[in-house]
Amino acid sequence: MTGFLRRHWLLLLLLAGGITLRVLTWLAYQPALLYIDTFRYLDNLEALRPTDLNPLGYTVVLKGLLSLGGFGFVAAVQHVVGVLIALALYSLTRRYTSRTWLAAIVAAPVLLDAYQLQIEENVMSEVWFQALLVGALWVLLSRGEPRWWRVALAGVLVAAAVLTRTIGITVVLPMALYLVLAGGAWRSRAGWKRIGVRTLAGALGFLIPLVAYAAYFNSQAGRWGLTGAQGNVLYGRTAAIADCSELPTGDAGLLIFCPPEPLDERLSIDYYTHFRYGDPNWPYVPLPDDRTKEELADEFAWTVIRNQPVDFVTAILHDFSKNFAPVKTTAPNDVPVERWQFQTIYPYHDIGAESVQIYNATTLAYDGVLPSVNVELAAFLRDYQLGGGYTWGPVLALAGVLGLLGALGVGKARRSGLRAAAFLATGSGLIVLLGSAAFEFSWRYQLPALVLLPLGGALGLAAMFGLAKRDPGSGGRRPKMADYPDEVDDGAVADFRARYGEAPLTPLVVVIAAYNEAKGIGPVLRNMPTHCGDLSVSTLVVVDGATDNTAEVAEDNGAYVCVAPRNRGQGGALRLGYHLAAEYGAKYIVTTDADGQYDNAEMPMLVKPLLDGSADFVTGSRRLGTGQYDSRVRWLGVRVFAVLASILTMRKITDTSFGFRAMTAELATAVTLREPQYQSSELLLGVMARGARVLEVPMTMHLRNNGQSKKGRSLKYGANYARVMTGTWLREYVLRGGKRRAAAPRPVRTATDARETA
């Protein structure tokens, strides 16, 4: 418990503040805050008309919540959802970086931003829209490379976001690009096949719900659509900038739709959208032809866009830039910022005649109380909000820049494994803001950026400065690998082939997995034998998504270098090395570590049993030879796991985790290897289960020549090592029958046994 508090103290502090502020907000405004949109939702609870201004997503949610309680219950649930969003963002960030402070920064805007608190108290769709966006990102980013079923689920969540707020449709573009970029699969033909599969799954997950909803819309309206707002989406924006002299003079219908106010005296977009176009009696003159009001509005908007493209784009970019202003103010003709600020009196918005009576009757019907304000609490919240209790616009801009730089591969980002994730979060945040600005600017429309841009900025920062976890997106325990080749394998092999062509390696290849070993790998390579017996030795270094210059150091010291675009663990790197070496002509494969723990001069003794045909797999043993240990726990672990392996296989084993091994390339590529990290026992038990001739020989093991072990804490490592060993035994010996029953059981021989037999 103490360790948990020490690691997550900053989040817990922010969480306490966020929960306290939410309780104060809920108590300050009873039963909840009702906005203009609230009454649109309420008016459609029973009929569920798809043709209304707002799509039905939030209406359905609200109907379900109101069946359980009143507006006070709805606001309470929305505050809980806000807290859960923050926790989800914190957890998602932690899957990519071990820096808890960075994850806490991502959660802070949602927890503490007063505009977020105010919108959660409103009976409106915003917090649910945020939750669906975060849910889609979680599904795509939380567990390594997205499988097809996860992409399909993300598509469903984005479709639900669209049906909650139609601006969610903009997220489809960054999501589609992410599916291409994730894992570097675009580097190979096989990778493009997987891209096609997951893109198809995502498209189906997205389109099936929307097509079904559009069919329902068609059954009610006689045309296909998602919302009744289609006619006025662009009308308000273009009416505010339209130069009526540019309209076709012979088209009386379009001229009717041009505002009568002079161009420099135009009213707000909100006015033209909701009050002029939204007036069911407008236009107040008969339409001159068979075109409907909606058709004329659309034609007017597109005519203005064609005639004034620069004005149109400039207006949108100007409104988009407002999101990053340091202070939230109301620009001329914008939606007043006061609508999203805490007030010390209950805010009755203008919803027509007798607005106050409508508010009172509504809250009485659902909660049995009149709208009320606790003035002291409201004053405190207002002072907090106006005194700086919100996310500063330049901070969001900085987050967007960091996310884009990380996605572009600046600094250490190129090999971080975070570029695609940073792009998805940042691109989604920016495109939602841009799409909203195309309609109109409102500080309310900035709120989705609170859950997207900080996440993208944190991922970009972690990518550029090497703060990523070794296995980004794993969330701690690394997920098992898919069959070879996966997306990472495809990208690495394609890159290797592009640099080295088809030139074969020698029949004996030393495979080294290296992650951030630039300081230690040079001496290992310089001391590598050039021959073992009559065979020349090639060295293949698989750089496992390193963030330092391991690849350059290895290449400078004469090694062939294969660069995996994402860190997966030693098991993934070695498996890639086995297959790549075999593909390039290797007959025998030796593995050693990049940290100088093994004596390269002992390689001829390791390889000899393979060359003379007396063994298929030869592994060193520090217990038969000499071993140095960095802790007593590790000394004990070597012996305990040797006993466990001997019991499981019924064959004597002295050392299960010695990394200096030699095997035939055919055997190395035939064994099932799924473990990215605790792979030594998986390989050993796997070859034994195939009935291979296994030999242990005495070898020397030194302490690392630099740095610290990447195996983590001894007890945690031991627990996971035991899990992998028993899991491999169950898979190979129980489920698959062990040894394929093709050969009689053979004991694991030691070098002494081999000499006595001779």
Automatic annotation (TrEMBL):
Record keywords: Membrane, Transmembrane, Transmembrane helix
TM region positions: 9-29, 65-89, 101-117, 123-141, 148-165, 195-216, 390-408, 420-439, 445-468
Domain Glycosyltransferase RgtA/B/C/D-like: 61-189
SUPFAM superfamilies for this protein: Nucleotide-diphospho-sugar transferases
UniProt KW Transmembrane keyword: yes
Domain annotation Glycosyltransferase 2-like: ranges: 510-663
Keyword flag Membrane: yes
A Pfam family it matches: PMT_2
InterPro entries referenced in this protein's UniProt entry, alphabetically: Glyco_trans_2-like (IPR001173), Glycosyltransferase_2 (IPR050256), Nucleotide-diphossugar_trans (IPR029044), RgtA/B/C-like (IPR038731)
Family assignment from sequence similarity: Belongs to the glycosyltransferase 2 family.
PANTHER family registered for this protein in UniProt: RFBJ PROTEIN, UNDECAPRENYL-PHOSPHATE 4-DEOXY-4-FORMAMIDO-L-ARABINOSE TRANSFERASE-RELATED
Record's protein name: Glycosyltransferase family 2 protein
Species the sequence originates in: Prauserella endophytica
